[in-house]
C-alpha cells in the first residue's frame, strides 16, 4: 500500500506540477544512474529540490531512491514524519553532531550496500536562490568509504525562485536541471571536495549566471 501511495503521489501531484506548471527542463539526462548504488549530489535552494530529483527517475525506481534529510527537521510533527518517511522515503541523518559511538554516515553506508540511490545536499540546508554555499565534508567521507560507488553532481536552477526558502506559495518559473559526469571518492578529502566544487561550478556556468556566495 505504501509503495502504491508513493507512486500515486509522484504520478498525480508531483510530476504534473513540475512538468506542466514549472516546465522542468533536464540537461544530460543520460548521465543519471540507471541502478544503484549511486550518490546524487546537488545544490539546495528549495523544498522542491528533492521531489524534482526523484521525479527524474521512473516511478518503478522510487523504492530504491533515498533522499538523505535532517532528522531534526523532518521527524516532527507525527503526520509530517510519516509522510517524509513513507511517501518521500527520506533517510534521516543527525546533523546536530555525532553522539558517542555513533557514525552519522552509518545509515547512508548501509543504504548503498543495499544498492540504493542516495540524494545528498552537501550545503546541509537550503540557501539563497541560485547561490551555492560552503559544502560540508560528509559527502567526501561517505564517498571515500565506498570508492566504487559513482557520485553524480547535479545543479538545479530556478527552483529557489519557484519555491524559495520560507515560502509555501508556488511561483511559476522555468527551471533547469543539469546532470554532470559521474566521478568517485578519493583518499584525500580536500581533493574530493575541490573536484566536487569544480564540477558543480562547471554545471552552474551552463546557466550563465554567477552562483557562489
SSE order and pairing:
Blueprint lengths: L1 H20 L3 E3 L10 E5 L5 H8 L9 E6 H4 L3 H11 L2 E3 L12 H8 L3 E4 L17 H8 L5 E7 L1 H4 L13 E4 L9 H17 L8
Parallel strand pairs: 1-7, 2-5, 2-6, 3-4, 3-5
Antiparallel strand pairs: 6-7
Please describe what this structure looks like.
This protein is α/β, with parallel strands linked by helices and 213 residues long. The chain has one domain: Glycerol-3-phosphate (1)-acyltransferase (3-Layer(aba) Sandwich), CATH 3.40.1130.10. The chain has 8 helices and 7 strands, in the order H-E-E-H-E-H-H-E-H-E-H-E-H-E-H. It has helices at residues 2-21, 48-55, 71-74, 78-88, 106-113, 138-145, 159-162, 189-205, and strands spanning 25-27, 38-42, 65-70, 91-93, 117-120, 151-157, 176-179. A 7-stranded mixed β-sheet has the order 1-7-6-2-5-3-4, sandwiched between helices. It starts with a helix and ends in an 8-residue tail after the last helix. 35% of the residues are buried. The mean pLDDT is 84.
Order of helices and strands: HEEHEHHEHEHEHEH
What is the third-level CATH name, the topology? Answer: Glycerol-3-phosphate (1)-acyltransferase
Which strand order spans the largest sheet, edge to edge or round the barrel? 1-7-6-2-5-3-4
Mind telling me which CATH architecture this is?
A: 3-Layer(aba) Sandwich
Assembly state here? single chain
Low-confidence stretches: none
How many structural domains?
1
The level of helicity is 25-40%
- CATH class, named Alpha Beta
Cα separation of the termini: 44 Å
Give the mean pLDDT.
Answer: 84
Question: How many beta strands in the DSSP annotation?
Answer: 7
